[in-house]
Amino acid sequence: MRKLDIETELYKSFLRLGSNAQDQDVEDILYFLVDAYNKYNDQQIGYDEIDLDQLIMDVQEALSDDDNYMNSNFDNHDNQHVILILDKNVQMLPWESLPCLRFQAVSRLPSLSFLRDRIMLTNHVNKKGENKRGEKTEWSDYVIDVNKIFYVLNPSQNLKHTQNKFEDFVKNIKGSDGIIGRIPTDQEWVDGLTNKELFMYFGHGAGETYCKRNKIKNLDRCAVTLLFGCSSGRLKLGGEFDPSGIILSYLLAGSPAIVANLWDVTDVDFDRFSKSMFKNWGLTSNEETPTKQKSNVSLVQAVTLARKVCNLKYLIGSAPVVYGIPCYLQGNS
Question: For the Peptidase C50 domain, which residue ranges apply (predicted)?
């Protein structure tokens, strides 16, 4: 039997049926092909000459083989990071939770300029030799010191469940500094962002009540930031203008990566996510105490893995996203 060359678009029409293609869908495409062939060729194909049942089975088998091949090859490749550049019209959607991306390490940025800035920042840091993880010094290998952490936990004093969950954890991080159960001054907030390498906020919103966005965006440097409040990563639409939000201030200040929420979340389920994210990232061990081991999991990968533990995987698990590039932890040996 001679192999038949077909156009790419026609081939795609079969692939769109998927590996579980229904008989009726395959039959419709086959009849369409026969009709098209008879219309443009002198030599006609009689419908009574077609063994339709066998042809449907052959197509379904080919689709299944193609699906198995793609899955096996996907599993054999490293799970590389994907950075989405999202414009104002699509940035509010949780693209990271699409079925095709849900298990992929995906972060986002508003423009290529922001990505360029972070590439230059990481190249500069690696060139100076300040951050190293083994022998690797790629632009996508930004490493932060686990000993330089600042935290703000429950400053409004009405998130008792969150405070009970994480108070011992943050206190046990050697070399860390922070505030628990009181309102920070704007200078304390700024010092935490500029003098530390990881800034963690456990409170309502993005903490703009304690430090205004204009002050943040004018900082000379900014730590990797975790904003665990409701809608902390939401960008407000501005019609024909670009959207606005405090996340942009952190990016303009030079933060390599920010974890924030696209919409409101419940504290219990999100605390479960946060705990899992810290563990995946390498900030905690199985004994739930901070670890100083080098992490081979980036912040982006840790967020991706932590989505699974949420009871509401799409309502709560899809809310947190990462703005920025992959970042790794490293402590003292």
Answer: 146-241
Question: Residue 186: which H helix or E strand, with range?
Answer: helix 186-195
Long-range interactions of 50-56: CB distance < 8 A, separation 24+: 52/27, 55/30, 56/23, 56/26, 56/27, 56/30
Instruction: State yes or no: pLDDT of 4 exceeds 60.
Output: no
DSSP, res 288: S
Name the nearest CA neighbour of 203 among 243, 256, 282, 261: 261
Q: Catalytic site residues?
A: 230
Query: Any idea where the domains of the chain sit in the sequence?
Result: 8-75, 82-330
What is d(CA 185, CA 169) in angstroms, rounded to the nearest whole number?
23
CA 234 to CA 225: how far, in whole Å? 15
Q: Indicate whether 63 pLDDT > 90.
A: no
Of the CA atoms within 13 Å of residue 108, those in its CB half-sphere come to 27
313 vs 103: CA distance, rounded Å: 13
The proportion of the chain whose per-residue pLDDT surpasses 90, expressed as a percent, equals 51
Question: Out of 3.30.43.10, 3.90.76.10, 3.40.50.1460, 3.40.50.970, which CATH number does the structure's domain 82-330 have?
Answer: 3.40.50.1460
Whole-prediction pTM: 0.73
Report the interhelical angle of 299-306 vs 267-281 (nearest 10°).
140
Residue pair 300/326 in contact by the 8 Å Cβ criterion: yes
Count Cα neighbours of 323 within 13 Å in the Cβ-side half-sphere. 32
Structure tokens at 173: 């991080």
Ordered strands of the 149-153 beta sheet: 82-85, 106-109, 320-324, 257-261, 224-227, 198-202, 149-153, 177-180
- Distance between alpha carbon 190 and the CA centroid of its chain, in Å? 26
